[in-house]
Each structure stands twice: as structure tokens, then as C-alpha cells.
């Protein structure tokens, strides 16, 4: 095997650590102070979460109650109590499709808000070293604490994948998100965004997003979409409310 899968089980949370012989992936924890006080959109989604994040139901009500009462510890409590309806329990279908069609660049990849690490493990290979960032305090006990917005990796990334991270942070922090993507992505690297939720709901997270929201913060930095289309592999009734975007940076067009 090209790598060894190590499962670190702590209070119901599964993390992944690199093999000692072939370290092709690693999971860090995100700093808590930079993330929205309600973390409903972090991690990978499950079928059950598709519409529930925009509707009132007992499980979502409980999650919001835990986070509001304790912005840092509440998120951890959700994992402890198994209140993670966003976790699919397997890699995201469109990520697997891109992998199977050899559409991912090789080299170093970053997945901020990686949840249980399903996508991190899926795309890791001898040609691709993958770093996952996650907010859980459980992860802090098993990995080095890193904050996406202030992190300075020793090497830049060839690929960054954003899914349910952009919609989880406060909208006022989206420009900072874009600047950090620019700073840690190689000049010829690629940004992949799975844009969700495209809707007109109020509040969050997940906060409503649109292609224009991404363009607003990425265009000034020289990023242009080289591909944008509905995600045909979307889970359940999200169909029509989720798009796949692929972005490259054209240095001559950067305004900053």
C-alpha cells in the first residue's frame, strides 16, 4: 500500500494521521476564534443535512443551542453527542468523480474544514500530499493547532478544495479567506470550490452563497473561473443549489 490509514478515535471523532513511512496526508485543527459561532456547515455533508440546515428541526435546533451557549465548547459538544448530520460518512461524490477522471493536479493539496477527513484520505496518493484543517477541539488534542487565516505553511499548495468552509465563516471574513487562498496557493495552482448553499435564506451558517460572492473576493486577486457548472453529482434535493467551480490565478490581472 502507498500509505497506512491510522484511525484516532476520540469521543466519536475520527481523525487521520500520516504513515511513518509515506506521509501522504495530515490533519490539523483550526483555531476556534476565526470561525463563525455556529458551525453547521463545517465538515462533509450527509443526506440528512441537505435541507435541514435551512429548516427548523429538533436536531438543528439543538446544534444551534449548543453553539450559541458556548461558541467554542458547543461545537465540540456536537461531536461528542453525535450531532453531525453534515457528515456523509464517505468521500464527497463529485470529489471522487474528479479523482477518477484524473482531474486533480498532483503535488500538495489543502482541504480546510475537512470534517472527519473522508476527502483528505480519498485524494491522498504517492503523487499528492494532502493537508486537512478542522476546527474540533478533539482534533487539537491529537494534532498541532493551526488557524487557516494566520497559517504560514512551509510549502505552498498546488490545489485547495473548499466545500462548506466559505459558507461557514462570517461573510465579513470572505475577503480574508480569498487573501489567504492567494497567499498559500502556488502561482500556477488551482482552487476548487463546491458552491453551496445557493439560496435566498437569511442568516447562518451555512450562509447563503452565490457565484457572484466568490467572484467579488477572488477577481480582485486575479482569480478567474476556468469552469463553472451545476454539480450533477449533488446529494439529494440540493440539486440546482450547488455548483462546481474551478479557478486559476492570472497574475497580470490581479488588482492587489
TrEMBL record:
Keywords: Methyltransferase, Phosphoprotein, S-adenosyl-L-methionine, Transferase. PROSITE patterns: SAM_MT_TPMT. Transmembrane segments: none annotated. One of its GO terms (molecular function) is S-adenosylmethionine-dependent methyltransferase activity. One of its GO terms (biological process) is methylation. It comes from Nelumbo nucifera. This is Probable thiol methyltransferase 2 isoform X2.
Amino acid at each position: 500500500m502507498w500509505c497506512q490509514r491510522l484511525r484516532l478515535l476520540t469521543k466519536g471523532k475520527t481523525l487521520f494521521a500520516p504513515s511513518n513511512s509515506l506521509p501522504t496526508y495530515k490533519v490539523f485543527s483550526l483555531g476556534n476564534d476565526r470561525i463563525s459561532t455556529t458551525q453547521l456547515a463545517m465538515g462533509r455533508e450527509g443526506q440528512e443535512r441537505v435541507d435541514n440546515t435551512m429548516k427548523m428541526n429538533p436536531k438543528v435546533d439543538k446544534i444551534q443551542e449548543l453553539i450559541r451557549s458556548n461558541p467554542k465548547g458547543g461545537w465540540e459538544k456536537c461531536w461528542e453527542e453525535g450531532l453531525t448530520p453534515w457528515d456523509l460518512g464517505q468521500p464527497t461524490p463529485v470529489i471522487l468523480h474528479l479523482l477518477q477522471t484524473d482531474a486533480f493536479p498532483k503535488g500538495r493539496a489543502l482541504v480546510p474544514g475537512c470534517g472527519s477527513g473522508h476527502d483528505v484520505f480519498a485524494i491522498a496518493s504517492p503523487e499528492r500530499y494532502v493537508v486537512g484543517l478542522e476546527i474540533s477541539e478533539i482534533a487539537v488534542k491529537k494534532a498541532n493547532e493551526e488557524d487557516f487565516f494566520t497559517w504560514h505553511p512551509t510549502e505552498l499548495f498546488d490545489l485547495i478544495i473548499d466545500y462548506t468552509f466559505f459558507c461557514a465563516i462570517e461573510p465579513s471574513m470572505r475577503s480574508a479567506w480569498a487573501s489567504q487562498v492567494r497567499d498559500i496557493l502556488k502561482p500556477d495552482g488551482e482552487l476548487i470550490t463546491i458552491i453551496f448553499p445557493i439560496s435566498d435564506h437569511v442568516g447562518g451558517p451555512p450562509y447563503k452563497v452565490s457565484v457572484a460572492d466568490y467572484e467579488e473576493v477572488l477577481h480582485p486577486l486575479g482569480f478567474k473561473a476556468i469552469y463553472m457548472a451545476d454539480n450533477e453529482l449533488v446529494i439529494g434535493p440540493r440539486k440546482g443549489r450547488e455548483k462546481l467551480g474551478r479557478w486559476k490565478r492570472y497574475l497580470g490581472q490581479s488588482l492587489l
